[in-house]
């Protein structure tokens, strides 16, 4: 098992946090011991405890936002929106629990009743990402706790400080210490946690490579619940519109918000030939104006750095690969600060590439593909194994109807960015973007399982057919 962990601020290189990897066996055992007591609490008690959590987060709002900004590099305003989402998740989850896993009573034969109720799975493992280190794991943890599960949460090894603070806030709100456990560590701890026999399910947000490995690991374990959210290679189609500037703004928001480190970020701009020069020119003009700076800079930046030097190096290499294999640079990717993972937003026309890589480029790198007609645009948008998010910018209502019908994605938007999905709606994708267990509002579905009961207060039964007649000859007079 890995031992020492460190976390550095991407924007400064300063050491932010250090600690040791946790003990998988010990953390699962503690969560397992706490589960029956937590599950036995009335739902009203669990609701009230989670509402106290909102108040606790609000009391520490500035400190949590500052920590998120420092550990991820995202602008402080972006970190504040993440903290707001953490607080908003509780009421959304309470509504979802009532709507999607509430109790039902039906009449049945012979005066019985049919009941549908839901039970928790037990110990849930939550594996969190680094791009939204509080909001995304919280989106699993809150509905899991609400349903009566206990949780072992392993944050990304790149954002352990935010994970540690989040768990402390749960405990401060009154959620039992052992009902939510923090497991620090890297890939080894994550694998061991997912494989642990006392874990009833794994809720994962991260890369397709890791998600597929977990899915393969679960192939022989149908008794465990598995919810995967694995990112995307998301298309934005730009079509006929009288407002090129607004269309370009939506493209920039889709591609470069949070330095492109959103699983719903647009990696590909698919644009109609006849308007391509105008749209691309306006996108570049806006991208040239984007402020890239440290999270607390004044004026506030649009983008901060990517998570670390390895990510920045990988994105730089990806840009060079595209350029070396037929891509035409529109806006070069630049490293403005030596030894720090800042990147300027990059745009490259890959229309002439014979084979365009179908990978998630997790950063501010937008690929452009020009197409002659709308059918070709949809075909190009669907030319991916992923299927998380897609947007049509411009176009007619008829074209949007065709787009909605034919596109393979779990989030389909019109004249809105590809990113920024609402927590009050389901969130998930198809292909290798997910396994048909969407999160956000639908997280309630994978945090509890339905139990159907036929119930009556006294036993009543009769068999009307298929019985031999009663033998009366053996009876006395």
UniProtKB/TrEMBL annotation:
**Per its UniProt record, what InterPro entries does this chain match?**
Ald_DH/histidinol_DH, Ald_DH_C, Ald_DH_CS_CYS, Ald_DH_CS_GLU, Ald_DH_N, Aldehyde_DH_dom, SuccinylGlu_semiald_DH_AstD
Q: Which UniProt keywords apply?
A: Arginine metabolism, NAD, Oxidoreductase
- A Pfam family annotated for this UniProt entry: Aldedh
Record keyword Oxidoreductase present: yes
Per its record, what are the GO molecular function terms? succinylglutamate-semialdehyde dehydrogenase activity
Catalytic-site annotation from UniProt: 229
- Aldehyde dehydrogenase domain ranges (all copies): 7-445
Q: Which GO terms describe its biological process?
A: L-arginine catabolic process
Instruction: Please list the coiled coil stretches.
Output: none
In the record, the note on similarity to other proteins reads: Belongs to the aldehyde dehydrogenase family.
What is the protein named? Succinylglutamic semialdehyde dehydrogenase
